[in-house]
Amino acid sequence: MSSNRNIVLKVEEEEAGQRIDVFLSSKVPDISRNYVQKLIDDNCILVNGQRTKSKTKTYAGMEISVSIPKPQTLSIEPENIPLDIIYEDSDILIINKPKDMVVHPAPGNNDKTLVNALLYHCKDSLSDINGVIRPGIVHRIDKDTTGLIAVAKNNAAHQSLASQLKDHSMGRIYEAIVEGVISEKTGVIDAPIGRHPVDRKKMAVTPGKGKNAITHFEVLERLSGATHVRLRLETGRTHQIRVHMSYIHHAVYGDPLYAGSSKSKITSGQMLHARFLSLRHPSTGKIVQFEANLPEEFTNLLASLR
Fold this sequence. Notes:
The chain is an alpha+beta fold. The chain has three domains: 5-68, RNA-binding S4 domain (Structural Genomics Hypothetical 15.5 Kd Protein In mrcA-pckA Intergenic Region, Chain A, Roll); 72-167, Pseudouridine synthase (2-Layer Sandwich); 172-274 and 299-305, Pseudouridine synthase (2-Layer Sandwich). 18% of the residues lie in helices and 28% in strands. The strands form three sheets. Strands 5, 6, 7, 8, 9, 12, 13, 14 and 15 form a nine-stranded mixed β-sheet that branches. It has a four-stranded antiparallel β-sheet with strand order 1-4-2-3. A two-stranded antiparallel ribbon has the order 10-11. Strand 12 and strand 13 (226-233) form a beta hairpin.
């Protein structure tokens, strides 16, 4: 007997004309649109017994069968790693991530990740929408970037946070020390980002081909050969701040991939900190705001550059 969860839906007349992924994510409350698209790719969603596509439009009488696989048994080991917990309730967990911690397991990083620590701390109370490797993980920050990250403790919370990321209503504000002295007080970098054409480990500004990416910056303090800036993400592309600041010739200080100055590379990783996070609470609907103070390495470098 199948251990999958099976759902059969028949489209009513008033429900016609919607994309099938939009329709299903609204009808089945604990699956996201992204997850619907994955199920379609895996042939777990059929229309009238046939394979379908995410963009297929619903029509009256359409029969949609959904087979949701039973979550895989998690093979990642829980680890008793201390977490700097800024806030926690039954829906969300806000963590101040330290430098050198990878968010989730990947080839070459199977342990000592944030996920290993979360599995120990939360036990079974983590969303499973992103699969067995990334339970609870809605968004990421790089290994050497410090600061705030939101974790979902159930699927409804995950969907809410993912939706806020997608419509850009989740506020994410970073602080960084960047190379060179920025003359402007504020600015906006609007430049598409895609995979670097030669170095596949890097991202790059790729006009005409990349995804839309917008970063707002504000100068907080001009230093000796560097600038302390505050950065607000309007979009959330991989390495966005690091790529954008390098693109305007003010790479994040110490960035091993994108920094231009060999002098700044003597620091242990990029001076980038996710300082402020605001979001709409999944259950109450109220806006909640969080802050993580600058790490000691960051403040020490600020002092040395003054």
